Amino acid sequence: MTFIGILQIVLYIVVLVALTKPLGAHMARVYQGEKTFLDPLLRPVERFLYRLFGTRETDEMDWKTYAMAVLMFSAAGLVFLYTLQRAQGFLPLNPQAFGAVTPDSSFNTASSFVTNTNWQGYAGETTMSYLTQMLGMTVQNFVSAATGMAVLVAFIRGLTRHNSKLLGNFWVDLTRSTLYILLPLAILVSLLIISQGAVQSLASSTTATLVEPTIDSNGATVTTQTIAVGPAASQVAIKHLGTNGGGFFNANAAHPFESPTPLTDFVLILAESVIAAALCYTFGKMVGDTRQGWAILAAMVVLLVTFMFVAYWAEAKGNPAFAPFGVDQTASDVNPGGNMEGKEVRFGIARSALFATATTATSTGAVNSMHDSYMPMGGFVPLFMMQLGEVVLGGVGSGLYGMLVFVIVAVFIAGLMVGRTPEYLGKKIEPFEMKMAALLILIMPLTVLGMTAFAVVHPEGLKSISNPGAHGFSQVLYAFTSQGNNNGSAFAGLGANTLFYNTLGGLAMLISRFWLAVPTLALAGSLARKKHVPASAGTLPTYSPLFIGWLIAVVLIVGALNFLPGLALGPVVEQVMMK
Amino acid sequence: MKTRNEKRMMYQRALTDSILKLDPRRLARNPVMFVVEVGSVLTTLLLAQALFGEGQENPAFIGAIALWLWFTVLFANFSDALAEGRGKAQADSLRNARKDTQAKKLREAKYGTPFTLTPSSALRQGDLYLVEAGDLLAADGEAVQGVASVNESAVTGESAPVIREAGGDRSAVTGGTLILSDWLIVRVTANPGEGFLERMIAMVEGAKRQKTPNEIALNILLAAFTIIFLVVCITLLPFSLYSVNSSGLGTPVTITVLVALLVCLIPTTIGGLLPAIGIAGMDRLIRRNVIALSGRAVEAAGDVDVLLLDKTGTITLGNRQAVEFIPVGKANERELAQAAQLSSLADETPEGRSIVVLAKEKYNLRGRDGGAEGMTFIEFTAQTRMSGVNFNGTEIRKGAPDTMLEYIGTNGRAVPADLHKAVEQIAKHGGTPLVVTENGDALGVIHLKDIVKGGIKERFGHLRKMGIKTVMITGDNPLTAAAIAAEAGVDDFLAQATPEAKLKLIRNYQTGGRLVAMTGDGTNDAPALAQADVAVAMNTGTQPAREAANMIDLDSNPTKLIEIVEIGKQLLMTRGSLTTFSIANDVAKYFAIIPAAFATTYPALQALNLLGLATPASAIMSAVIFNALVIVALIPLALRGVPYRAVGAAQLLRDNLLLYGVGGLIAPFIGIKLIDLILVTLRLT
Lengths: 579, 685
What we know:
The complex is a heterodimer of chains A (579) and B (685).
Chain A: H1 3-31, H2 39-53, H3 63-87, H4 103-114, H5 124-127, H6 130-160, H7 170-195, E1 206-215, E2 221-227, H8 232-241, H9 262-286, H10 290-317, H11 348-361, H12 376-387, H13 398-417, E3 423-424, E4 427-428, H14 431-457, H15 459-463, H16 470-484, H17 499-529, H18 545-578
Antiparallel strand pairs in A: 1-2, 3-4
Helix pairs in contact in A: 1-7, 1-9, 1-11, 2-7, 3-4, 3-6, 3-17, 4-17, 6-7, 6-8, 6-17, 7-8, 8-9, 9-10, 9-11, 10-11, 10-12, 10-18, 11-12, 12-18, 13-14, 13-18, 14-16, 14-17, 16-17, 16-18
Chain B: H1 4-20, H2 24-27, H3 31-52, H4 59-97, E1 102-106, E2 115-119, E3 128-132, E4 141-145, E5 147-151, H5 153-156, E6 162-165, E7 172-173, E8 178-188, H6 196-205, H7 213-247, H8 255-265, H9 268-287, E9 290-292, H10 295-303, E10 306-310, E11 316-327, H11 333-344, H12 350-363, E12 376-378, E13 386-391, E14 394-399, H13 401-410, H14 417-428, E15 432-438, E16 441-452, H15 456-465, E17 469-473, H16 478-488, E18 492-494, H17 499-511, E19 516-520, H18 526-531, E20 534-538, H19 543-548, E21 551-553, H20 560-597, H21 616-640, H22 649-681
Parallel strand pairs in B: 10-17, 10-19, 17-18, 19-20, 20-21
Antiparallel strand pairs in B: 1-2, 1-3, 3-8, 4-7, 4-8, 5-6, 5-8, 9-21, 11-16, 12-13, 13-14, 14-15, 15-16
Helix pairs in contact in B: 1-4, 3-4, 3-8, 4-6, 4-9, 4-21, 7-8, 8-20, 8-21, 9-20, 9-21, 10-20, 11-12, 20-21, 20-22, 21-22
């Protein structure tokens, strides 16, 4: 580990925390229907949209109506995106004349983008037309993120309201999230990365003649190179801001046309975590006690920083297997040191470890290096960050509502320990809340472990594994962990674009997104109906350092208990076998 | 003290019960232990397979695992049975009181009219019956005529007789208690089988015990953990198959090991002890002579935010005491004290006695010092409304200010200017003034004061730290009430309290989301008792009050409400602490079992064998044995409850997390290592 490497991680955390309050306060104003500085520009657009779709802003929904709206909207998106991919051959803006995407891949991709996962079984530049990318992927990047934010806001309303059935209006929350938060930020980030050299074009790919011919894997001489371009920058900005992660190009954020410079790399890491972090402040603001929001953010940041350093340490240490060959793995002015396999020389080790941890801690799943090539413990970090349930920042909206479920479990046990029926923010945690919370922590490990177990004994599942042994197991576990947590990053080694993985993965993504969103809203509905219990000296303080520590312990222990055996047979055994 | 023999009986009964409780229909109510039982059956079948056919493992190993899994279930059942056993012993003694007796049924409520002998089981609500000295009361009811002394030890355990009389607040009688003297005519208020005694028996036996909301919520969480671990263990089989195939080493993990891992991981400690914790909570109340009529009320007691306490008897001693002599006019304090003492010599009321005592303490006056023989004491009567003494032509009188002013007036004497001031001053401080005169001349005023019970202020301070607000209820005027409230350190008071005002106060607190507890004994308390979340009726109270309450205090001690709150909190804390302990234990168990389970496939995983356990078999055995023994080790804690201290929530959490969270992480590492060492020493591996 180098000083400059550590400094980059520290800088990232400082800037992230500094941005939390201004952005969080803005979002609180947006969701509470207050005036913002964007109103003169956007309010007419917003009004026009409501008139167009016949939405009455003041009509609020109970949890069932709200959940139904989420499901219907997402189902419509799913059908539209599937159809678009199947029909892209007949549609305009297809300069490379790509044909229809296969049914299973279309299903997987549609599920992937609607669920804010952005798992990509395909290579963008050789599969999708510009129309599909813009009208399909980019649009879903916005609205799937906005859907997550809307569900979170409904959940917060459940905590703040009492003796009420209503959680707000999904269409309003969706519209305001997109217009006032995602769109302005996306424009800002797009312009920033275009200024650094990211590509934004509707022109077809160009062909260049190689200066020095090369030989491909079949032994044939290659003299030309196809350089793919397209409307990339606009999609890249939102793929990070909305914690989507689906790259325009197959190489994702490692591709120089997506992220040309270290500055853009830094901006993109920041973009994927800033909304999730700021939403904690928004939450505190909306519940009338910002300490509650800072406490949750503190728990997230502690976990994030700890694992960033684990990943950085593992990668910087290099590969002990190289030591006998006399390979110099120490960092110097001319040598990055450590494990550089699968990493971009533009970004180096610290930056890659930072990116890998952030992209999996948030549910982004974009990559600037190949996680498959990480050292076992380096690969363990992204895997484990996802297995915690995408609650360390997590997806925009979904990360915080996932974390709030852990808070409820933590409050339940800690509340008992201080001798009161547990309560959070004045709401008593009773059997129904526990039922929903239990469901919410059950579904993810059930899906991930169940599907992994099926894949590692099924011949179709085994066929796609590129490395045998423990690493092959890690590949499969990673694939289902990523999809079952709506992350979308890949442990590249697995050949996942098969009927088997596309179908199973598509199901995993749908289950983990919607089977979680519905109980979350049911929980919100039940909390909103309760009366408010005023706090007293006997009430458990949920913002003290002690509680933050307890919350971290609950998140870690639940994550560890679920996945420790699986991890032991994957990265852990790889690590111990290396010695 | 229980005799040794009784204790042995109790343990024997608990042992038998723990075997009876193996019935899967009964265990199914407890998902965690049900899974353990299924695991026990499964390993027993695997043992049979290993003995009579092809087993996956050494039969001795499977047999040992199966045995310890059965022990795990039995230990959990034993804790449950032991907790119930204590209640059962109490129920038996109660049941002895509930004999079928012959009641003297009357046609009309008139003493001396003929009666017909009717079995008590035939008495119905509204019937009248006569009880005389030596009779057992046949059914619960209300005395409509007569006064009698009653031995209620069958219910309360207190053998001193109590007075029961028609009308007023002492009219409720309980079936099964014994009339010692005189007679009563009783109107039956409960049909056979629905009486107070029956309800008590049902409660202490736990027959009617229903899971409380918090217990249900915790059970859901435990069930969720159980399901997760079930999936973790089931999926481990395919994971292991893949690993064996790809590494080409070893054999897949066996069902026996998976069952052992599962039982170690699921929260058996809390799952096994959870029913016992609930029953023990009720039992702790019973031992403090409080009968909870619902488990929900015990739990709610831990959540109480507001305590309504009657002033008299709870905050102050029942009687006022003299604290000061204030002379007026030309009289000096010593003269006043002497006169006051003389006038009170024959006064046997606590107030009167306190005047004598104060005079003696302050001026060392002995009762007879100032007076000669031949004193005539004038008793207090409703007509004169004053009392006093006549001797040697001296006439000393004392009484309430208005009466005495009139008396001074009729004697044609002047009222000293400072008398009014003294009277007012005392009233302002919450006291009661008594004016003393000698031959019609005002000597001064005695200050009678409500005496706040010793240590009560500290107790209220503790309650405040617990986040509980105390409200004093009194019939006094607001001025007096405020003074006493300030002295006792209560947070608030309700003066000139009427039943309506009390009810309204409770409703107001509840609308604000607070939980209210109160005690009461009179019929006029009944509506407020019914409204309060935790309502404790005094056993000496009236039948309506006892009906409206959800707890009965057999000692009729209103201060006990504070203990009840602490028991409620203890109950919840014990659940929380053991849950934390149980889950924290899993970390160590993983480190023991995972390397052992995959020892043949990935020998490198031995790096995780942090404890250096001897062999894979001994590692798994040690974890399973630890898991079973820890239940036994924690039975006393479950029955006794985690101690509650009145400190803030933050400190309680810190202490309990340290003890049960960090302790729960460390304890199994030590325990499993020790068991492993013992197994190695005994050559059982």
